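Example S7 (structure tokens).
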């Protein structure tokens, strides 16, 4: 087999990843643009990340996405990361170049693009509550700060994670008020909140509790749920019943994926086709 006949291999690293629609989105894009490549899911157990990445490199992978719970943890196994990903403290896209692993973050731009497109919302001078403090929350907080949000409150069931996120964000955005809040604080601050962003995985399973008490939601705010499968999570449904404009994370998935695709291939991603493929393959 000649080198030209070899497929380029891309994929997704995470745990669990059975719900992911990324393979559908990328493979249809490769086909459309006649790129001889394939995108596959690579589920790696949380305590086997290093071994999993080593195995990927041995297969000759050209790049991969990173999802829960590895967006921050993967950084120590990379050769370099772009400045924005370093500031965020999370990587969701890796490019393999000359056997070197280079980390990027396309999540924050993907989120901002979706926020503008799907919610018609500008973060500028707004008060925002982020639920969760994982890798996605780090990127989203960075994006909101970059767009000059006025106040950002971060809640995580593990208070230490929220404080670590805030400490990281303040290194780049000293002038923006970013504070950790506890569960009991939400009732008081939510009255002034313009946007809630759910960055927890709650909603992926039907039996999950809501990440916030639906009674606290009010019509003056908008809601963004990064969970995209199902398309309408229990939180999105609860918000919609109150007349609140709400969006799932499908747009963020689409745009961050398109940006990753362009990093890997150097070609413009077929956005409309990728969007259609995502919607068609939702459970």
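Recovered sequence:
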């Amino acid at each position: 087999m000649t080198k030209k006949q070899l497929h380029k291999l891309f994929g997704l690293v995470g745990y669990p990843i059975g719900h992911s629609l990324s393979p559908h989105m990328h493979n249809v894009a490769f086909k459309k643009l006649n790129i001889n490549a394939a995108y596959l899911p690579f589920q790696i157990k949380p305590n086997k990340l290093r071994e999993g990445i080593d195995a990927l490199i041995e297969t000759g992978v050209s790049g991969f996405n990173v999802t829960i719970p590895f967006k921050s943890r993967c950084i120590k196994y990379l050769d370099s990361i772009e400045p924005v990903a370093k500031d965020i403290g999370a990587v969701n896209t890796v490019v393999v170049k000359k056997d070197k692993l280079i980390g990027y973050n396309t999540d924050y731009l993907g989120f901002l693009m979706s926020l503008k497109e799907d919610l018609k919302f500008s973060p500028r001078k707004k008060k925002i509550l982020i639920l969760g403090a994982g890798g996605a929350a780090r990127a989203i907080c960075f994006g909101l700060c970059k767009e000059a949000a006025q106040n950002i409150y971060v809640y995580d069931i593990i208070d230490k994670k929220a404080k670590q996120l805030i400490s990281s964000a303040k290194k780049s955005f000293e002038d923006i008020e970013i504070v950790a809040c506890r569960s009991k604080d939400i009732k008081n601050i939510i009255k002034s909140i313009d946007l809630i962003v759910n960055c927890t995985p709650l909603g992926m399973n039907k039996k999950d509790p809501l990440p916030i008490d639906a009674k606290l939601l009010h019509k003056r705010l908008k809601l963004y749920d990064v969970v995209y499968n199902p398309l309408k999570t229990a939180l999105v449904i609860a918000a919609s019943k109150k007349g609140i404009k709400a969006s799932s994370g499908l747009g963020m998935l689409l745009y961050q994926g398109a940006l990753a695709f362009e990093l890997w291939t150097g070609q413009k991603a077929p956005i409309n086709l990728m969007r259609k493929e995502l919607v068609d393959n939702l459970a």
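Notes on this example. The chain has ten helices and twelve strands.
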